[in-house]
Amino acid sequence: MHLLDRDITLFINFVLDNILPPIFRDCKYIMYPIMRFAYGRETKLLLEFKEKFPFMNDAELAEYYSRIVNAPINTRRETDLNIASLNWIIKSINNAKGSVLDAACGRGYLLFKILESNPGVECYGIDIVRQKEIHSTCDNWAVVDRGGTQYKFQTGDMMKLPFQDNSFDIVLCTHALEHIRDPQKALKELIRVCRKRLIIVVPKQREYKYTVDFHVNFFPYLYSFKRFIGIENAVYLNLKGDLLCCIDF
Fold first, then answer.
1. Predicted TM-score (pTM) of this structure
2. Measured in Å, how far apart are the chain's first and last C-alpha atoms?
3. Which residues pair with 152 in a beta bridge?
4. C-alpha span between 211 and 139 (Å, rounded)
5. pLDDT, tens digit only, all 249 positions of the chain
6. Taking a C-beta distance cutoff of 8 angstroms, is the pair 169, 96 a contact?
7. CA dist 200 → 80, 95, 132, 146 (Å)
8. How many CB atoms lie under 10 A from the CB of residue 209?
9. Residue 78 in contact with residue 2, Cβ under 8 Å?
10. In sequence order, which ranges of the chain are alpha helices (DSSP H)?
11. What is the dihedral of CA 148, 151, 152, 157, to 10 degrees?
12. How far apart are CA 177 and CA 103, in angstroms?
């Protein structure tokens, strides 16, 4: 297991968030070496991100995320999901039929894992950063191919998803809402386009000035995540540092 694997970084984040005193946690000089290890030459972007974020337009935000695609933490880790969350999602979708949308799909790791066990499912992804593994195009979709396994992809904004109501049987959104300018608006969009099941995952994390990520929304407790979702009849889980919500319609 690599030092930047999600389950290892979750443990590191737990130590930073809960053991290191805030006076050190908010100190740039103490946090810089950790940030440098994770983001390399793009560390400056991370240091200034929270100050600039309120005034960034969509194009500037997309540029930031496109620049960190090849940062060490992203090239050495295929997904932000920990093993417990990944397995829970895969198990919940096993034998599913119809269509699956992964909103903020990144490189498509979760979609490829779903297709391994559910080859008959139609998988779609949308993300603010355009995929590099484009195989071909079909209508408004680009086809992303990996070893003969394919899903369809669009570039788009989670706060205004370019789909009709109830477009997808299952909608996934993992480790994305912590990045969104208006997470409540994004949540409403996810609910709008979902027909049967919506699964959302966010990191369990405290807010500090310097975090080793580009997060702007924080969910330090399961109850704060429940308050954000606001739907009583849903499944809420704390899966070893990932907070998961599953809503059936």
1. 0.92
2. 38
3. 124, 143
4. 40
5. 444 577 788 888 888 888 889 999 999 999 999 999 989 999 999 999 999 999 998 888 888 888 888 788 877 778 899 999 999 999 999 877 899 999 999 889 999 999 998 888 999 999 988 766 666 566 678 888 888 888 999 999 999 999 999 999 999 999 999 999 999 999 999 999 999 999 999 999 999 999 999 999 999 999 999 999 999 999 999 998 999 999 999
6. yes
7. 13, 20, 25, 25
8. 13
9. no
10. 6-18, 22-25, 28-39, 43-52, 58-67, 72-75, 83-93, 109-117, 183-193, 222-229
11. -140
12. 10
**Nearest-10 crossing angle of helices 183-193, 222-229:** 60
The residue assigned the tokens 């139609």 is 122
The DSSP output letter for 163 is: S
Q: What is the β-pairing status of strands 242-248 and 235-239? A: antiparallel
Contact 180, 186 (CB under 8 A): yes
CB atoms within 10 A of CB 159: 16
User: What domains are defined for the chain?
Assistant: 6-75 (no CATH), 83-248 (3.40.50.150)
Nearest C-alpha neighbor of 53 from the set 157, 178, 162: 178
CA nearest 6: which of 246, 212, 197? 212
Structure tokens at 29: 């000089």
